[in-house]
Design goal:
Oligomer: single chain
Radius of gyration: 14 Å
Strand order of the largest sheet: 3-4-2-6
Structural class: alpha+beta
Strand content: 25-35%
Shape: globular
Length: about 100
């Protein structure tokens, strides 16, 4: 499968499970570093062209080594979701994306 076909498959899957525009839940788990939460929020804001922070919550894991950031931006299209996940993969400290 080509990269373009894979991209279209992902877009079609998102469109089959979401009615855009809609609020999307994104969870990012990463190392509990001083700048991690701000970097995750900024990545979503930039990719979604948001003027303000999207609704979000955080939760530290037992032992405080990791933190989970749950964001709920309102997005216009499946392509935005994929772009956000691509940008989040570049954030230092990310361990897991849901």
């Amino acid at each position: 499968m080509s990269d373009q076909e894979e991209l279209q498959r992902r877009i079609d899957l998102l469109n089959s499970t979401h009615a855009f525009p809609t609020r999307v839940t994104i969870k990012v788990i990463g190392r509990n570093q001083p700048t991690f939460i701000a970097a995750v929020i900024e990545a979503v804001r930039l990719e979604a062209s948001l003027e303000e922070d999207p609704p979000y919550s955080t939760r530290e894991a037992r032992g405080n080594r990791h933190v989970a950031v749950t964001l709920e931006p309102h997005l216009a299209a499946a392509e935005q979701v994929l772009a956000i996940y691509a940008r989040l993969q570049t954030v230092e400290g990310v361990v897991y994306l849901l």
